[in-house]
What we know:
Blueprint: E1 2-6, H1 12-24, E2 29-32, H2 38-47, E3 53-54, E4 66-70, E5 92-97, E6 110-113, H3 119-132, H4 142-156, H5 166-177, H6 182-188, H7 195-207, E7 209-213, E8 216-225, H8 232-242, E9 247-257, E10 271-281, H9 288-292, E11 298-299, E12 303-309, H10 313-327, H11 334-337, E13 344-345, H12 351-361, E14 365-369, E15 375-380, H13 381-389, H14 414-424, E16 428-433, E17 436-442, H15 443-458, H16 474-480, H17 483-498, E18 502-506, H18 508-515, E19 525-531, H19 541-552, E20 557-561, E21 566-574, E22 578-586, E23 588-591, E24 600-603, H20 606-611, E25 621-624, E26 632-633, H21 638-644, E27 646-647, H22 654-657, H23 660-672, E28 675-676, H24 678-690, H25 692-700, H26 708-718, H27 723-733, H28 747-778, H29 784-799, H30 818-828, H31 832-841, H32 846-865, H33 872-879, H34 884-893, H35 896-909, H36 918-923, H37 931-944, H38 951-961
Parallel strand pairs: 1-2, 1-4, 2-3, 4-5, 5-6, 8-9, 13-14, 19-22, 27-28
Antiparallel strand pairs: 7-8, 9-10, 10-12, 11-12, 14-15, 16-17, 18-19, 18-25, 20-21, 21-22, 23-24, 25-26
Helix pairs in contact: 1-3, 1-4, 3-4, 3-5, 4-5, 4-6, 7-8, 12-13, 17-19, 23-26, 23-27, 26-30, 28-29, 28-30, 28-34, 31-32, 32-34, 33-35, 34-35
Amino acid sequence: MDLVLCHTTADFDALGAAVGLCVLRPGSRIVLTGGCHPTVRDFLALHRDEYPLIERRSVNPQQIRSITIVDASGRDRLGKAAEWLDLPHLSEIAVFDHHLEAHSDIPATVTQIEAVGATTTLIVEKLKNQAENSDTPSRLLPSEATVMALGIHVDTGSLTFEGATARDAIALAWLMEQGASLGVIAEYVEPGLSPQLQDLLPEALNNLRSETLHGYSVAWVLLSTESYVPGLSSLASRLLDLTETDALLLGNVYKFGENENNRNIAPESPVSNRLTIIGRSRIEGTNLSELFKPFGGGGHARAASIATRDVDPLLTLNQLADELKAQIPHPPTARELMSSPVRSIRPETSVGEAHRILLRYGHSGLCVVDAGDRLAGIISRRDIDIALHHGFSHAPVKGYMTWQLKTIAPDTLLPEIESLMVTYDIGRLPVLENGQLVGIVTRTDVLRELHQQKARDRGSNAELSYCVMPESVEHLLRSRISAELWQLLSIAANIAQQRGWQLYLVGGAVRDLLLATDDTVALTDIDLVVDGKSGSDDSGAGVELASSLQKLYPESRLDVHGQFQTAALLWHKDSAFGSLWVDIATARTEFYPYPAANPEVEASSIRQDLYRRDFTINALAVRLGVPRSGELLDFFCGLLDLESKQIRVLHANSFIEDPTRIYRAVRFAVRLGFEIEPQTEGYIRHALASGIYYRIQGENGRAPALETRLKSELKYILQAPYWKVALQMLGDLQALRCIHPSLELDRQLWRQLRLLDRCLNGVRRKKEEGRGKKEEGRGKKEEGRRKREEGRGKKEEGRDNSPFPIPHSPFPMINIPDWQMRLEVLIAYLAPEYRGKVAANLQLPADSIKRLEALEAGKNQLVENLPKCKLPSQLVLLLKNYELPVLIAIALQSPRSARRQIWEYLTRWANVEPPLNGNDLKVLGYKPGPGFKRMLDDLLAAKLDGDLGDRAAAISFLAERYPQT
């Protein structure tokens, strides 16, 4: 275990430097050795889960491998954690600090103490250097960039303190490029006040009036001074922070004489009242700029000012306060924010089993309910980790759960929820309705909602620090789909709402609508997800909704499938919808019992349903129906990835769980013209290099993801017009190892695939030529027997160079799609003993498996006998009993001379027929019987070898070889 220690009463510089070191050294953990600064404490109350923090008491000293101390160089600043420095087995003790005058008594093996404004600057310089010298640089997470920027801002006074350096400024600029959130920085940086403003601060606090509305507090105050006071905006910000007010109007009235600015005006000129009002707001939906505009003021929605004169100061301020309160919207409630249903366990559940459930569902805590399903407590991952650390895996969770809980009701407003979380440092709040647990609101839910509010206020063209969140895409949706389809979605949403459900459009349809450049998008495949949003069992909601829709659209076909009763409505060549497939499912979560397994799914919430998807760009959803119709749900920054044109996976183990996602990543990247994000590519390469898929096949006998699901992905790729680019990308990733560990796309295999493509294109071209001449012959039927024979002759001419299996050809009629031919070439490149097994594993057709198993023997036989064929008739006799796909596969793997002979047979000799047929023999007086075949074979051989010229020569040939008695 690698630890990064922050000094006692940690400030933002210590925290920012520690987070940066964890980025430099993945897997490291941060320990706050003894509390933190109040501002840092408030910050971590909301953002703790975004950083690798662990409790000091949960550390096993014997497992510590290295220790790094940041922003301190003395043992006395590390509290009890200083004892760890004396552990004999430590491989490294490092110190990073910017206090040159401090005395160090730490036995460090690595030390970097330099004269910069913040220790975080030293770490940022290392990160910047690493990014600039990496072949595949990766960006910081916004949360990482933000806390490091806070460290530099706070310790340098936003670059105003004497110790600030140019290095600090460069580090800050780079962190801004990496996505540091200026809004969050402004919220936690404390600017200083001038002496004059410091004198006004107590007066403002004493005279401040405030009112709470919809959970938001609004305050206003009027100060009177002798003259203009500069810097009132800083005083307004300080008041906002000290009083924890959500909106503030700070007024300042002072005397102003015209002669103060104009020396030409007489001293006795009248003195007027001037009024300055500074406005600040943190409330979504308020717009101070619009509020101040009638008085000649302006600014931004959240920060604006007025400078006016000759008005009643108190009356004006009170009027503006009333208008500001009227702007405050009703904030979201717990019912709109909560996740439901809630994963819960009984008090008797063991700690080990609770840990397994957390691992399975990816939660950070679990609700504990009694036999009557009443909430009894909550146990967090931190509690479970500590219990496991002390060896209590078999103990019941009731001994470790928190039972004195803060709970909320479904109608609790967001500001109150946020206040509870910050005040009591609570990461999750259960939602109770009539004593029953109906949902849970987590710190992540609150952060996401707050961020969405900020994003909506900034507008879509603003610089965004996290994921862009449009307020609504309803207009975009309505404008880009047909009126009939919009009506269908609206009806479905209304039916869902009547049953207390929420309906979402999800996945590829949302992605394609957002990417579309045309005015309309023809959607043929739509996925809808029903979120029950209650404690009841709504696992059959998808089927019920689909059944209701089918009654309104009887021309559609209803298919019900899947163990969780998903359903589909299908239209085929419908006048309104064309060919449309609408999948309707209940929101689900999934768990993979082992890598490459089929997932186990169960009903869950829309957030969990989106989390189970493959990539961020496919984990988008649009809310259909009220409230908040058209709202875009983007929990994983999929919209930013669409804008950046990159494929990014949702979590690090995604490819371990499902290797077919590797093929989907490549397919989407090539099809959409995107790039696979560097870290995602790293996850792909790690999954392939780990050998986990083959180990699982050995342990379990099979890996379902590598069977029909892999074949489906191969089909999608190999039948697409971009298959060559996609296959080359798979080869570069070494992803063909999913088919078999030894399969790689080397030059020889790529050459075989290109030869096959040329062959298939030639076959397709010859077939079209043959069809055209066949139609020409048919058009002359009315011209009589002679013309029909002429037409038939032309058909024969059209077939001469066509290797396609058509009537009267020696080949059986076999219809194999191009993608399967390409897949068989890939499999045929394996060693002979693997081909049949791989084909069977992919569940290819029986004839395909048989061909691949017999390929090696057939190839050896032909390679041996082809050199002996000196005449065309000998070549035809040898090859005519082989199927076309077999001959093509053999040709691709054979030496050039053999390949030339096979190609000559396919293009020149395969469709040559004897100059006479059975009817002709009967006309000549020969009696039908077994001899007919021998006679026709001899005629064909003679024609192939050039021994026959015309029909008369053929008759003479027969008369000589087969005289009639």
